[in-house]
Design a protein that fits this description.
Layout: H1 3-10, E1 16-17, E2 20-21, E3 43-51, E4 54-62, E5 69-75, H2 85-93, E6 97-101, H3 115-130, H4 132-138, E7 140-150, H5 152-163, E8 170-173, H6 186-197, H7 207-217, E9 234-240, H8 252-261, E10 265-271, H9 281-295
Parallel strand pairs: 5-6, 5-7, 7-8, 8-9, 9-10
Antiparallel strand pairs: 1-2, 3-4, 4-6
């Protein structure tokens, strides 16, 4: 059993903050920090940043201590009702900063929503964190930035991570793959179109435009093809056995097979749970936090 699996199994982690070890019996999922840095305490900061001329809204969870801290960008799905902020809190207690934001045209951020824009917005978020003044202000270790995405956010994490080889780690949770939707049946497209048009919190140009974008981008949006981009970097893929929104048989298992064939440094877990892991949240958090502690700092 490797280190991160031992961490998941035992519920404890060896963490490094400012080059000093935190006690092995500290569990970031169930325990608050025992010592708070008076000058650099854990905090939450509201922020906004530019992406292609649009202001995106977000906030960052700041880890305890002067850092600099490894930093995760947490990406919500479509439309983003499940934001996984419990995972952000666990990662923060494990010593990670976590940036959460809304894409263009989503939940009050400026601009028009599209899947292509989402991927660009992830890159803009990473660029923002790497700005010297921002990295200093938020105590960001710019050499250790990772992407963690759920559902469509998992698609965006893989797409943006593949395009930026300096991203340390990528985690896809119930990660969608939009490429195959380009050849979906009429019935599947009709259901998807109805769902798209029902999302009042998204400013998009309608389901016809969204579906046309997927058809136009085709294989470019096929995350199964991106394994060679991750050959030397850690990737974690997680799926829920009872997920009916992103079927693990059609999404998770083929992606695992493709990435293993490409020689990716891959960890993968198929656990109990629906699309939001509604009854396995602690298992999800322990898996992600343990793996990222072992691989992404």
């Amino acid at each position: 059993m490797n280190h991160w699996l031992r961490t998941v199994a035992l519920g404890a982690a060896v963490l490094l903050t400012n080059n000093s070890a935190i006690a092995q019996d500290f569990d970031p999922l169930t325990m608050d920090p025992t010592t708070i840095d008076a000058e650099y305490p854990p905090a939450v900061a509201e922020l906004s940043f530019d992406s292609y001329g649009s202001k995106l809204n977000g906030h960052i969870y700041l880890a305890n201590g002067a850092g600099p801290h490894p930093t995760a960008v947490l990406l919500h799905g479509f439309p983003g009702n499940e934001k996984n902020l419990d995972l952000a809190q666990g990662l923060r207690r494990a010593g990670f900063n976590v940036l959460f934001f809304h894409y263009r045209g989503a939940w009050g951020s400026e601009g028009d929503y599209s899947f292509g824009h989402v991927v660009e917005d992830v890159a803009s978020a990473v660029t923002y964190l790497r700005e010297d003044n921002i990295a200093a202000q938020y105590r960001v270790d710019t050499g250790h930035i990772s992407l963690v995405g759920h559902s469509m956010g998992g698609f965006a994490a893989v797409m943006a991570g593949a395009a930026d080889p300096s991203i340390t780690c990528v985690t896809g949770i119930a990660a969608a793959n939009l490429g195959p939707r380009a050849t979906a049946t009429e019935a599947e497209l009709a259901g998807f179109a109805a769902y798209v048009d029902a999302q009042g919190m998204l400013n998009h140009k309608g389901s016809k435009a969204v579906i046309a974008e997927i058809a136009e981008r085709g294989s470019e949006f096929d995350t199964f093809l991106l394994g060679p981009k991750f050959k030397d970097r850690p990737v974690l893929l997680i799926a829920g056995k009872q997920d009916t929104a992103v079927d693990p048989v059609k999404n998770h298992l083929p992606q695992v097979a493709a990435y293993e064939a490409a020689g990716v440094k891959l960890s993968h877990v198929l656990m109990e749970g629906d699309h939001s892991f509604s009854w396995t949240r602690f298992a999800l958090m322990r898996t992600v936090t343990g793996w990222m502690t072992a691989n992404c700092r």
